[in-house]
Specification:
The chain is built from 13 helices and twelve strands. The protein is an alpha/beta fold. The protein has two domains: 209 residues, 3-Layer(aba) Sandwich (Rossmann fold); 108 residues, no CATH class. Strand 11 and strand 12 form a beta hairpin. It starts with 19 loop residues before the first strand and ends with a helix. Bound molecules: adenosine-5'-triphosphate (ATP) and magnesium ion. Magnesium ion binds next to helix 1.
Amino acid sequence: MTTLTKPSAESASSGSGALLEVTDLSVQFPTEDGLVHAVRGVSYSLRAGDVLGIVGESGSGKSVTSLAIMGLLPASAKVTGSVKFRGRELLGLGDKEFSRIRGKGIAMVFQDPMTSLDPVYRVGYQISETVRRHDKNASAKAARARAADLLELVGIPNAKDRADNYPHEFSGGMRQRVVIAIAMANQPDVIIADEPTTALDVTVQAQILEVLNTAMQETGAATVLITHDLGVVAGMADRVLVMYAGRAVEKGPVDGVYYTPRMPYTLGLLGSLPRLDDAEKTKLTPIKGSPPSMVNPPPGCPFGPRCPLHIDKCDEREPDLVEVEPGHEAACIRNEKLEGDVEAADFFEADATDLTLAEAVVADALPSMDGASAVQPATTPDERA
Ligand SMILES: Nc1ncnc2c1ncn2[C@@H]1O[C@H](COP(=O)(O)OP(=O)(O)OP(=O)(O)O)[C@@H](O)[C@H]1O
Ligand SMILES: [Mg+2]
């Protein structure tokens, strides 16, 4: 088995200590209907070993944020703000320079494995080519051996023989394992996994999360995990960023955000978590209403029309993301209303009326978190050292 070596946390970071620093990132797409404001002022930073979960409903801008970071948006997209990797600005970088960073510095795992795999090449070849793209000194033989090692590491049985298969000869779950092997191939500093399990069935999802966890441990990469499943975030991430209508509306440590959410939207998301102990509840209680148009967003809080705490003042201007506790930020002028015990009936129509809000949220969230805990919690950088 090849040994995987990694630069120390110190040498991997820029002066600020951040590996990846996203500041005020915005993306607009010109369309026939007008300018789509897909991402609006998203900021986050990742240090070595960090695991950040990004959650939010469909269309909230999670993928566009990641594609902007990777320089993979169509040329028509207008991207502003700053994305620094190891202190170096990535926005505006030429394609050639960017391709040196992609895969080696920042690797991405997409939702659909076929997006990342080429159907006409054997999987072993695709992995070994990834290795050789960034390591010109690697011989073909060494790269092939590394490919087999990686396939074994992600749990492909008979890895050496399977390396000669084509992607279509693998199941969806196996293909996603291959994609994770490719992401790991060059010991990236950062892995961005965009809904890595959404296309897979539930039993395979848990296995893939374990593989992703192995990838995180083996490479020591800081990880951004984008998912619809708040249970997955609870099991794997240290911090969470909740997106709504292109913005971060709540940000903070997983515990703080889950147990004392301070933005009603986050509460709604927690309320719509599937419960593994109750088949009927897995239908979810979706948050009422739908997100606003991103072409002409209304002036006030974009969640206002769907919010049970809505008052007229919410429509005046969009609330800033403000610190509500150390390290925990929320964009809601009424966030104090969520401090302490709030009646669950204010938020959930269902059967939770006797519970306090906090109890209802925890009761709803915990069964799913248990489901995700089959996955080892992420280690801290210290444990990994
Ligand atoms: N090339 C494009 N041109 C115009 N609009 C786009 C383009 N790509 C994305 N959008 C819009 O940007 C917004 C954010 O999309 P994005 O794919 O980031 O959502 P998401 O949070 O990843 O959703 P999902 O959970 O469904 O993956 C959406 O309104 C989408 O329609
Ligand atoms: Mg997406």
